[in-house]
Design brief:
Helix content: 40-55%
Shape: globular
Largest sheet: 8 strands, mixed
Structural class: alpha/beta
Distance between the termini: 38 Å
Bound molecules: NADP nicotinamide-adenine-dinucleotide phosphate
């Protein structure tokens, strides 16, 4: 990656950047001149996504990032330290198991475990791996892509694995925000709204709108909020 001081939002890493909202986030960040690392658990899919962006005149560097692979994420942290040696934005976007097929009373706890491994622990370990660089950034933003399904206030039955994982991700957001406040790292959870992706299915809003909701938290000014939960720039009940 170039050693020039990056423009836009500096150097940004988006997990699950090969499709859906993640790919649109990479597109937007690259379009604003940021140096973007497109994280993809499947390098082939990631290269295909990076090639699609190149076709649009945009640059993103693909790196293999499987957030469920603890050793791989530790290695990612070390590799980012070496090159580019800087990170200003981390978007924890990767997620799985919007489990509309089960309820809490009959949930397969192995599915719940998998959801927690990726949606909670994946975001957590990626944040930890990136923290040494984020702490050194002059304007660090850590954005956890959450969901209204994780709002305890609005929670009813259904999608148990996903909902519990996103509620836990929201709790993690509060904890990291408090612990990183003095380092100037703004940490927020963001719901993209219901978006027509592979996960969201038909009928949701366009991926551009979902990505815009997330970008809001990337673009916060230095005196912007931290430890909040937002959709389209407006607070969501926890
Ligand atoms: N779509 C909605 O309506 C909606 C609503 C609320 C919140 N969200 C949230 O928005 C975010 C993006 O969702 P989306 O709709 O764009 O979902 P999507 O189309 O299903 O894409 C999910 C992305 O996450 C990646 N991923 C899954 N497990 C991974 C792992 N272990 N390591 C790295 N990457 C992994 C996928 O990679 P592969 O291609 O390799 O599978 C894919 O790139 C998620 O956090 C989701 O919970 C979505």
């Amino acid at each position: 990656m170039s050693t020039e001081v990056p423009r836009g939002h500096g150097v940004a890493l988006v997990t699950g950047g090969n499709r859906g909202i993640g790919l649109e986030l990479v597109r937007r960040l690259a379009g604003r001149g940021s140096s973007v690392i497109l994280g993809s658990r499947d390098p082939q899919k990631g290269e295909a996504a990076a090639a699609e962006l190149r076709g649009e005149g945009l640059q993103a560097e693909m790196r293999a990032v499987d957030v469920a692979d603890a050793a791989g994420i530790e290695a990612l942290g070390a590799s980012l330290e070496r090159d580019p040696g800087r990170l200003d934005v981390l978007v924890n976007n990767a997620a799985i198991h919007y489990d509309t097929w089960q309820t809490g009373v009959d949930a397969d706890v192995d599915v719940v475990r998998e959801a927690l491994e990726t949606n909670l622990l994946g975001a957590w370990r990626t944040a930890q791996a990136c923290l040494p660089l984020l702490r050194r950034s002059p304007r660090a933003r850590l954005v956890n892509v959450s969901s209204g399904a994780g709002s305890i206030t609005g929670m009813g039955g259904g999608t148990p694995a996903y909902s519990v994982s996103k509620a836990a991700l929201n709790a993690l957001t509060r904890i990291l925000a408090a612990e990183l406040r003095n380092d100037g790292v703004l940490v927020n959870a963001v719901c993209p709204g219901w978006v027509a992706t592979d996960m969201g299915g038909a009928g949701g809003r366009p991926v551009e709108n979902g990505a815009a909701s997330v970008m809001w938290a990337v673009e916060l000014p230095d005196d912007g909020p931290t430890g909040g939960f937002f959709r389209d720039g407006r607070p969501v009940d926890w």
